[in-house]
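Work Package 3 (structural annotation) set out to generate three-dimensional models for the target panel prioritized at the project kickoff. During this period the team completed the workflow that converts sequence records into discrete structure tokens, so that structures can be stored uniformly alongside our sequence database. As a representative example, we reproduce one entry of 183 residues exactly as it appears in the project archive.
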Amino acid sequence: MKVLTITGYKPMELGIFKEDDHKITFIKAAIQKKLIGFIEDGLEWVLISGQMGVELWTAEVIIDLQKTYDIKFAIMPPFENQESRWPEQLQEKYQKLTMDADFYKPIYQGDYKGAFQFKAKNMWLVDKSEACLILLDDENPGSNRFLYEQAKQTENYPIFLITPADLDDIVEELRMSDPDYWD
């Protein structure tokens, strides 16, 4: 697999309302762990639409991994100015990440026109990648369910998940790696 799409929840869907929430650390660690395995198996590109939450955290993880690995990422938003209604801090973060991306291009030119743009974005991301990685809790799906449903309809398209159990494992791993844990 050379190209992977990654998506997940928006921050508010996870009860995250501040950029310094400790849950983000665990989510990023889970993404990083999965990505390193994929990179070591030949992954070259990650595609995201740049939505706030898991996708922007993925971009930050990749930028960090680029110090050690040859991995690139593309931000392909459904339309221009998708961040225009976001909080100012997230708008600035998004704009910086689009500059740091190895490739950036909105799927539709112009601003939001309708929900069809989100559906087209999901179809495009699945079509242009060989598999997807989704942070997903089957019992509490959010906006991530739309790409997940698109992926499930695609023949021979692997879907990798980061589940709540995976996040619990990451929390435990990080706690156990802290020397103070053993005192």
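The first strand starts at residue 3 and ends at 7.
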